[in-house]
Amino acid sequence: xxxxxxxxxxxxxxxxxxxxxxxxxxxxxxxxxxxxxxxxxxxxxxxxxxxxxxxxxxxxxxxxxxxxxxxxxxxxxxxxxxxxxxxxxxxxxxxxxxxxxxxxxxxxxxxxxxxxxxxx
Length: 120
What we know:
By secondary structure, this protein is mainly β. 0% of the residues lie in helices and 60% in strands. The chain contains no helices and 11 strands.
């Protein structure tokens, strides 16, 4: 129905910046809320940033003023701008969208994740 592909991860030095992208494709869809999650090594997955259909945003306390989430519905893209990264930001990052696809009810779709590694 919907495929999400994250990109932009990689190795970055502490203090650097990174922009993660997530592209959605598939059947005709209406995207509502979008979330970025991360899963650090040995830890549970946690939500770090959200952007609602009205473009209101919310962030985990640990990334406020550091990460910025944005969306481009015309391109079916979402972005996570990461600034001043630290080794604590090392994780697999996932995008997840709540979308309605023609013929289906509202569902959450997940990407496969992209690894971000921050070196000290």
